[in-house]
Amino acid sequence: YIPCRTFKNISYGQLGATTSLAVKKLFGDLIVYSDDEYQLAHLAREKASDLNYIREQMLYVKDNHTFVNRANAILEAFKRIN
User: Using one digit for the tens of pLDDT, what is the confidence trace for 20-68?
Assistant: First the structure.
């Protein structure tokens, strides 16, 4: 399960951080991850001022996980059927 709030928070310019392994697998190194909440808070605090990292997260969401991306994927699927 990938919560939509992860995409929303990142798209609004907030640091993406999670305890979810599924989110970590999707974002790879572009998400702050720990399965321990205390460690996650510490890691997120360290990354909170890294504006380049936050920008990279935003670009990843923009380029891969928007409504336009989903609509284009559906159109591509229809093209393959026909």
Answer: 999 999 999 999 999 999 999 999 999 999 999 999 999 999 999 888 8
What tokens does 4 get? 């939509």
pTM of full prediction above 0.85 = no
Report in angstroms the alpha-carbon separations of 15 from 2, 23, 48, 54.
16, 14, 6, 6
> From the CB of residue 14, how many other CB atoms can be counted at a distance below 10 Å?
15
Which structure tokens are listed for 32? Answer: 């702050």
Q: Report in angstroms the alpha-carbon separations of 58 from 32, 36, 72, 73, 75.
A: 13, 24, 19, 20, 24
Place of tokens 């990843």: 60
- Residues comprising the chain, all counted: 82
Neighbouring-strand partners of residue 48: none
- Determine the residue type at 60: Y
